Give the backbone structure.
Amino acid sequence: MAFKIIWTDEAKSTYLAIIDYLEKEWTEKEIIKFVKSVHNRLSLLTDHPALGKIHKRRYRIYKTLVHKNVSMVYHSKPRKKEIVILTFWDNRQNPNKLKY
């Protein structure tokens, strides 16, 4: 059975912020490429929730690359068959600032 994807408010906010940035600085082609990359990664996660690199083992928090500059941070809940998208992270930032 596939896992259900749940987005937090922060995940929605950071995702839209990246889209806004792409609209200002890049082309529509880049936006479409990013959106497809996110949807492809989410599709893979529904069947393979432990696909990402473990960020915090104790809390089942994973980080997976969706673009060379952007990672998606998510929490796996195997008993509930849920994946909670926590945030999107610009990899060029200081990783110590990531608070999950």
